């Protein structure tokens, strides 16, 4: 995909976004660390301890896209869309932080769409997608209930 | 059959399915409105239908006792020894000894089983994460056009959607609010719409041929859904609650099939005529104070993180920070989010249970009203740098997070 607007991308992918977002602006393609709400897309080189090579099989991204994350309330998904044969993805790569939900490798620009956050372009490369966490404040510091909780927007 | 002919056939099938789907959407809206109805009960209709069900199990017509809310019904039923509570109790193994409610439950169970066979559908379809169910959920029409069968779309777009709105979103929290002993065996009247709609819509779309007895009994249950609130059948009396007297709902941005969730920013989201009520913030059930009187002291003392978050959103993150008098530790520009700051605040540890700090950040994308939403995240107490705190939330160092190019 070459540079396109949010309106064009939503028409191509069938994934809609809220109409107050700037539909006619070109979607920036980012070659580096970027965040979309409670997700972050990290160059694999930055977090090499996250395993993206192994016995697991990479999957092709289908034309309808891949929902990387749907929020707890069944809410808005972050959907990865790509031209045919340009992107593969791997669910739940091993990650010491436990935050990685997917890895992807793409040979041309792919897009991450979210109904409220709009869309963002990801330049060719190998990437790790992580969720966001926060420190749980429930319970006492010495109890086993102390742990981090995942953020859902 | 050649390929061209087959394609024509798929097209014809899908246009029939699309037309039926449009009709199903209208019928779904009808059943949802029964579920959300705040009209006074149609007592005659409800009593007539319940009496017919009693007759089907050879029970005498009961005396009807009308109450304003499920809570009132519980007060009334609490003292009665014959209110069935425990389904496993051995005294009910002999069928002639079984309480009316147990026999009605069997009757309903048998009907549902027969209707499942007649319609070739299930009220508990196996959970699946197949591509077709995701497509049916997000893009039902596209799913139908590409060969996903209508029953699968109906499962997601009617049964699941109505259950989300009326069972999970309404009946379940109401039942939880009733508290101890809320397993009294009874029915939910208007909130039982989902299963009735599941079969009724298939019947009305001509997708199932029911026997006369099945059709007649389904209509009895349907009439109850259309006419009253929750009800509890006993041998001599039947306690029936009025419908809700006020329900406040919203459709979330994620709603694809007309799903609604409870929300009222200024009062109860559900109210019954006697004042029994339930408060909710964007679908999360909360104690009344969260909506009516969200004082900072209460927020600080609240241990449930969801409730606390709702209460803070209710007054707004900035207002909360101002009123709570939290100390600002540091602020720094948010990398990748030009013009926005990351602000790190100290939290009183004795009130939050765990030593933690609060990171206040600003959304990368604008809301419908043109503003960017502020949101708070709790982070470990040993972090002093707002950028390090933001990095921690993604498992990154401050150095790494500083390389953030864009936030949407």
TrEMBL record, chain A:
Name of the protein in its database record: Uncharacterized protein
Taxonomic path: Bacteria, Bacillati, Actinomycetota, Actinomycetes, Micromonosporales
From TrEMBL, chain B:
Pfam family of the protein (one): DUF6745
Domain DUF6745: 188-403
Domain of life per record: Bacteria
Region (Disordered): 118-138
InterPro entries to which the protein is assigned, alphabetical: DUF6745
Protein name from the UniProt record: DUF6745 domain-containing protein
Native species: Rhizocola hellebori
């Amino acid at each position: 995909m070459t540079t396109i607007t949010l309106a064009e991308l939503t028409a191509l992918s069938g994934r809609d976004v809220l109409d107050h977002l700037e539909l006619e602006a070109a979607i920036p393609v980012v070659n580096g660390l970027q965040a979309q709400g409670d997700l972050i897309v990290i160059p694999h080189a930055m977090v090499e301890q996250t395993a993206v090579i192994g016995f697991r099989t990479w999957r092709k991204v289908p034309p309808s896209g891949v929902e990387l994350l749907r929020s707890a309330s069944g809410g808005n998904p972050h959907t990865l869309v790509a031209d045919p044969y340009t992107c593969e993805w791997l669910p739940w790569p091993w990650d010491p932080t436990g935050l990685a939900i997917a890895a992807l490798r793409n040979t041309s620009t792919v897009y991450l769409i979210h109904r409220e956050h709009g869309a963002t372009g990801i330049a060719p490369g190998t990437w790790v997608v992580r969720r966001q966490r926060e420190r749980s404040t429930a319970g006492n510091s010495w109890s086993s209930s102390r742990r981090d909780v995942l953020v859902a927007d | 059959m050649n390929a061209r002919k087959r394609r024509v056939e798929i097209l014809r099938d899908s246009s029939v399915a699309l037309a039926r789907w449009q009709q199903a959407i209208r019928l779904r809206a009808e059943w949802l409105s029964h579920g959300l109805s705040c009209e006074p009960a149609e007592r005659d209709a409800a009593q007539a239908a319940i009496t017919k069900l009693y007759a089907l199990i050879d029970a005498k017509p009961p005396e009807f006792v009308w109450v304003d809310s499920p809570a009132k019904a519980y007060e009334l039923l609490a003292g009665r020894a014959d209110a069935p509570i425990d389904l496993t109790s051995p005294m009910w193994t002999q069928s002639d000894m079984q309480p009316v409610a147990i026999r009605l439950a069997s009757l309903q169970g048998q009907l549902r089983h027969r209707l499942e066979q007649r319609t070739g559908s299930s009220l508990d379809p196996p959970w699946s994460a197949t591509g077709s169910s995701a497509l049916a959920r997000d893009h039902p029409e596209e799913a139908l056009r590409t060969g996903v069968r209508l029953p699968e779309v109906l499962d997601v777009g009617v049964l699941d959607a109505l259950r989300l709105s009326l069972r999970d979103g309404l009946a379940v929290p109401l039942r939880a609010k009733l508290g101890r002993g809320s397993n009294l065996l009874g029915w939910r009247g208007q909130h039982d719409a989902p299963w009735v709609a599941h079969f009724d819509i298939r019947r009305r779309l001509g997708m199932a041929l029911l026997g006369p007895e099945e059709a007649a009994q389904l209509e009895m249950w349907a009439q109850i859904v259309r006419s009253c609130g929750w009800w509890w059948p006993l041998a001599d009396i039947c306690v029936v609650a009025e419908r809700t007297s006020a329900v406040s709902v919203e459709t979330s941005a994620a709603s694809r099939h007309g799903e609604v969730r409870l929300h009222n920013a200024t009062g109860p989201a559900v109210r019954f005529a006697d004042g029994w009520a339930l408060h909710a913030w964007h679908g999360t059930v909360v104690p009344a104070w969260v909506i009516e009187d969200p004082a900072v002291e209460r927020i600080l003392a609240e241990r449930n993180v969801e409730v606390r978050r709702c209460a803070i959103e209710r007054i707004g993150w900035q207002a909360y920070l101002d009123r709570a008098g939290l100390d600002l530790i540091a602020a720094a520009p948010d990398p990748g989010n030009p013009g926005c700051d990351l602000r790190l605040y100290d939290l009183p540890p004795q009130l939050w249970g765990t030593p933690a700090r609060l990171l206040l950040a600003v959304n990368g994308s604008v809301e419908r009203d043109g503003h960017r939403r502020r949101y708070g995240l709790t982070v470990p107490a040993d972090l002093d740098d707002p950028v390090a705190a933001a990095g921690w939330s993604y498992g990154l160092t401050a150095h790494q997070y500083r390389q953030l190019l864009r936030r949407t």
